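Homework help board

Subject: predicted structure for assignment chain

Our instructor gave us this sequence and asked us to write out the predicted structure in token form, then describe one feature. I got the tokens but I'm not sure how to describe them. Can anyone check?
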Amino acid sequence: MNARNVAFIGLGTMGYPMAGHLARAGHRVTVYNRTPSKAEQWVREHGGTAAPTPATAAANAELVMTCVGNDDDLRAVTLGADGALATMRAPAVLVDHTTASAQVARELHAAAQAKGVGCLDAPVSGGQSGAESGKLTIMVGGDAGTFARAEGVLACYARAVTRLGGPGSGQLTKMVNQICIAGMVQALSEGIHFAEKAGLDPLAVLDVIGKGAAQSWQMDNRGKTMVADQFDFGFAVDWMRKDLGICIAEARANGAALPVTALVDQFYARLAAQGGGRRDTSSLIRLLRDRG
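My token output:
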């Protein structure tokens, strides 16, 4: 692949290793992070350049990736005088990896289109381990031609990069992903709790049912740690609550019924109120164990 001028904005748990994969693939990477010391650390590890603002990072970049916290953070790093779009020029492409609303994805697409710049909403799944190993699943919304220009670069940190439709489609697909995960984690919590109460060896049970129809990523990657009551890692409850809030708001708008998702969101709210907001989402099982 030809080396490209790339900017990466947001070096959090996911963005830091994702940007690293771009550098290792030979791309010329400029990074921006709200905390400058994090960007400076990244440059010491990977080379490239640290920029003082998103606009500076995006100047002369062929592709600009963003991976920040929420809708407001995304607007802050893309719009306005210091935002990435201030310096982007055609035929550059803005690729947003934030898990955000479909509404903000469409806003960004319209703002980019007004400047002749391509825009893709491209949330990811696979967690910190997927980002570090370069095996994320990327769900993309946007124009087919824009996707074709960015797909090869996104493959640097992905095992699958798939366009689902027009602007907002990537974010809507990520909502489906989070809806399914919420239900699976609650079901897995109840299954393990039931096995424990029934006097079974939960690890043996997971080993058996993991070879059948109940198998899932959550079971394979979180089952043993749930049995061990270990949750100081992974995808935080606070982040999941943010994501489920986006799902529930979108469901109100499109008329979808999400009764289980809404219930699990309430369970996560209880965990957060108990001080567990930074624990992994699999800590749902704690609510069952605490009942005795």
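Reply (TA_rk): Your tokens look well-formed. For the description, you could write something like this. Residues 5-166 form a domain with the Rossmann fold fold (CATH 3.40.50.720). That's the kind of observation they're looking for.
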